[in-house]
Amino acid sequence: MQKVTPRSEDYARWYTDVIQMADLATYAPVRGCMVIKPYGYALWENLQRSLDRRFKETGHENAYFPLFIPESFIKKEAEHVEGFSPELAVVTVGGGEVLEEPLIVRPTSETIIGHMFAQWINSYRDLPLLINQWANVVRWEKRPRLFLRTTEFLWQEGHTAHATSEEAEAETIQILGIYREFAEEQAAIPVTPGKKSESEKFAGALHSYTIEAMMGDKRALQSATSHNLGQNFAKAFEIKYLDTSNQQQYCHTTSWGMSTRMVGAIIMVHGDDMGLKMPPRLAPVQVVIVPIYKTDEERAAVMAMANETHETLRNAGFRVKMDNRDGLTPGFKFNDWEMRGVPIRVEIGPKDVQNRQVVLARRDQPGKEGKLFMGVDGLAENVSSLLESIHQSLFNSALAFQKANTREVETYDAFKEAVQSGFALAWWAGSREDEAAVKEETKATIRCIPFDQPGGSGKCVYTGKEAKEVALFARAY
Amino acid sequence: MQKVTPRSEDYARWYTDVIQMADLATYAPVRGCMVIKPYGYALWENLQRSLDRRFKETGHENAYFPLFIPESFIKKEAEHVEGFSPELAVVTVGGGEVLEEPLIVRPTSETIIGHMFAQWINSYRDLPLLINQWANVVRWEKRPRLFLRTTEFLWQEGHTAHATSEEAEAETIQILGIYREFAEEQAAIPVTPGKKSESEKFAGALHSYTIEAMMGDKRALQSATSHNLGQNFAKAFEIKYLDTSNQQQYCHTTSWGMSTRMVGAIIMVHGDDMGLKMPPRLAPVQVVIVPIYKTDEERAAVMAMANETHETLRNAGFRVKMDNRDGLTPGFKFNDWEMRGVPIRVEIGPKDVQNRQVVLARRDQPGKEGKLFMGVDGLAENVSSLLESIHQSLFNSALAFQKANTREVETYDAFKEAVQSGFALAWWAGSREDEAAVKEETKATIRCIPFDQPGGSGKCVYTGKEAKEVALFARAY
């Protein structure tokens, strides 16, 4: 069986190999675009379901806005158009005719949703307006990478309007909390929540917040963002409301999103040289059953218990798959499901049938340590707690890795060394230009100003000025 | 409160009024496109969930293919390009540069999926390949109508590949059965399943099948289609497999889809001059609770029982909403929820509190006949059977309407009269040209050759030739 390139040899190649061999996705014949294959899409569906439930529980409703945005809309907010112009795909012909006004394929929907909000909102009674959209968006990508940077990608984009600045800020922070909870509790990915610097914030936002995760190569991945747009879009699109004293006021709006990039994070945070490790709560297949037999007689007995086990686990609500493919050895199947990162493998052989037991093999613990014998009776409960334990163990490993590779640095020399291979936490009081200089010199950027601050003050790692904040720096995807 | 235009006065206007006043959707600032508002999108989500479950139960997997299709792909299947050319939206600029090859915004994905299938399928072991995609598609629309014809719409498109012609045909028919079951059992819409005529079939298909429904104005709406593509796309895209004798063979492929048009069908089949009637199994809100009180004391007592009822029904798994909006009369609220078609309204007033009972009002039976008193205890069971009864009653009404307005005709004069206002069933042995002539003369088209045939033969209603089949004719959306 073909093996993936080891991470230590070529991380980028390892990433592509895993995606291909685990059957998650592939490049499309359209430059920069991808095809998400069934196994990858099933992961995305689980992510969607989990996130969607959280949005609905906090009062958000889904809606759908058009794919196409009139060019004039994009131009209404100055920073926004500047940020997105280089990435736009433009429709110039429709129904056989050259269009009078070209249409932009949405790179994000602030402008068209802003236009609609202006029509829907009249008075303070219409606020807050809490909308989410699941959609595809297009940002022209010159150096595409599957899931991480593709010209078309799938995401959700939330858009809300509020009466006050405080409410908009509270919404922005609440959503970041939902993203953090999702990343940690569902994807088993520890993240650092914080605020984006001026240079890194969203084009048109007042403040942007982010959750940043450390990938297996110690680079950072921005995993989701939440933006307080202040009144910038409200002013550009005339999103106004009558307040309780019958005065016209501009709304305060927010926007926030998580995308198919998160699939890239799951691959890179948990994967190893044997392939993927799916976090149990999102895994498309949580348990795979591999029956082992040689003779027809063995086959009959083994398949009977395998089918019984399959039914037991399925009825208990697990996502379980029976691998009864003919003509493949058990060893081949083991490797195949390890590559796909299925958290638990159930092996059933003739001896197991006699003892009414099965072998459970954990994907996260290779070799004998990860194998347990368990009785068929009471299996569902044991599988349930084993999945929980795998979730926790994936999270703990990722957290330990992140901590081991994050250094608090005081000098610029130490900083430069730290960001070569890991995260650096450093006091920061630099300007936008200083930040650009640091990026130029070290390839590292401010991933965020973490919410979790030591307090007090220190000496800025770059300018030497007195600094009130510690920033998290890293090379990033 | 504003009322909708009566259907008898102007059906098209009634349709638009209902969509606007029930808050389902609105036209976007982009010509031909729509914005699906939260209430309309919630209906679409329920439809999606229900259909998606059926596809997965029959072994289909979801995947995602790119929005953009190289122009050369569309041109590979001759009938396909001819059918879709006038409707295409074309991206000519990407990332600030004019593209060497223009990209088509997908009008449907046979071509790009065909290209991928050719790479994924090697041997008979890879078959059948059963894929579904939930996506947006774009077909330039000169005369847009919300949900029925919009330049961008949402749909699912299934694409499958099979080893034999028989299997492809069986898949095509199986899916049509799923659509029929969905329409009848979920949307409470009776449909006529059958085969499309040569003129009406999908561009590039061998056979197309359809389910046709009668709208409230007695016109037909094609509600979903399922196509046996034969080897047309397999030959155009080289979708081949090695058979068990190690010979290269072309696959047989199918495609099938249901779209946001179905929302239009739900509106037009069930709606009346008071607004929508949501079929209970898909209704975003199945039960709305309207508390009625005057004094603060009454309010306290009524709200206590209203909250208790709310919780009881929510815990029982119903989609239930409490309308505790201040400053609106109960009468206003009644009209509002009638407009939105909520199947059951629960009214709770001070007297009801004393008797521990509530009033249940059925949306499908206006006035006193639709009102029932029911005890608070055991309410969930009664609501459950009432929802079932409303579903059945909506289906029965629609079926009776369809039957009353479908005529079996033998002469062309009777035919012409019938299709002015209803469906006509007639023996048919005409050519493609005859079909075009009938359309020219009567505006009616063959909606399908129904599966349900009388057998034997008769005289073709147009040509007088001996005919073996009865066709269903109607003016259609």
Give the C-alpha Rg of chain A. 25 Å
CATH class of the largest domain in chain A: Alpha Beta
- Provide mean pLDDT of chain A, rounded: 96
Number of strands of chain A: 25
Count of DSSP H/I helices of chain A: 14
In CATH, the architecture of the largest domain in chain A is 2-Layer Sandwich
β-strand percent of chain A reads 25-35%
Task: Give the strand order, joined by hyphens, for the main sheet of chain A.
Answer: 3-7-8-14-11-10-9-22-25-21-20
Return the CATH topology of the largest domain in chain A.
BirA Bifunctional Protein, domain 2
The largest interface is: A-B, 53 and 54 residues
Instruction: Please summarize the sheet with the most strands of chain A.
Output: 11 strands, mixed
- Fraction in helix of chain A: 25-40%
CATH superfamily of the largest domain in chain A: Bira Bifunctional Protein, Domain 2
Q: What spatial form of chain A do the alpha-carbon principal axes imply?
A: globular
Low-confidence stretches of chain A: none
Assembly form of the protein: homodimer
Distance N to C terminus of chain A: 31 Å
- Helix-strand makeup class of chain A: alpha+beta
Count of structural domains of chain A: 3
